[in-house]
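Data deposition worksheet. Section B asks for the primary sequence of the deposited chain exactly as it was used as input, without tags or linkers unless they were present during the calculation. Section C holds the resulting structure in token form. Section D is free text for depositor observations; keep each observation to a single sentence. Incomplete worksheets are returned to the depositor.
Section A, Depositor: J.P.
Section B:
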Amino acid sequence: MSLLSYEVRAEAEVAATAEEVWRVLTDLPGYPDWHPAIVETSGALRVGARQREVVRAGNGRTLTFRPVLTVVAPGRELTRRGRLLAPGIFTGVHSYRIEPAGDGRVRVMQAERLSGVLVPFLRGRLATDTRAQFEAALAGLAARLEKDRRR
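Section C:
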């Protein structure tokens, strides 16, 4: 990693199949039900499609992003690339990856590779706040999967 790039990661093992996780990750209108930072998300689920994502920042403000899907691999990976303002300022490549973990469980990894001139100024917040947000999102995902299984 260079001075102008940083990666944030979190992962969790959940009692679900890859298909169950994929169903939740691709239910875009359902994100606010389980993801604590997502206020709204919409768009087509195909590579090259632009999505609309409204995110609640740690300070309570909302930011709207228009990321482009770069990987849509059912049951395995959902990745999108977005930026703040202009190229080179702050670009993020955000992904969810799903891997078998055995015994009816999967490992869900959430990661974001960030780059741009703002990264050095935000590195501390990215290491703490963003990682905590990822962990909360994965806990919300696990809770949503458990709720769906009880139905």
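Section D:
The chain has a mean pLDDT of 92.
Residues 119-150 form the longest helix (32 residues).
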